[in-house]
Design goal:
The chain has a four-stranded parallel beta sheet with strand order 2-1-3-4, sandwiched between helices. By secondary structure, it is of the alpha/beta class. It has one domain.
Length: about 90
């Protein structure tokens, strides 16, 4: 099963993923347990060390994952625009 790390901007998505049977954690909740995840580097490194897919809106983190072959789902404006176009196509 793929493990997922949800960046702090989408805290709560981890709970939704867990309810659907996924193995997910959030950066924000991990911090409350004392994990030192305050920089992009430490978050990306945590995902890498724990074989996790990082879900983030941070373009810089997404690029860093891509450059270092770390699995990542980047929820940037381009991805959101694709969703908008897909939903608009249903109205035609």
């Amino acid at each position: 099963m793929t493990k997922i790390l949800v960046d702090e901007m989408d805290d709560g998505m981890d709970e939704k993923l867990i309810s659907l049977g996924h193995d997910a954690q959030s950066v924000k909740k991990l911090r409350t347990f004392g994990k030192k995840l305050h920089t992009d580097y430490s978050i990306i490194n945590y995902a890498k060390e724990n074989d996790m897919v990082l879900v983030t809106r941070d373009t810089e983190s997404g690029q860093a994952c891509e450059e270092n072959n770390i699995p990542c789902i980047l929820l940037d404006n381009d991805e959101i625009f694709k969703i908008v176009l897909e939903k608009l196509s249903k109205f035609n």
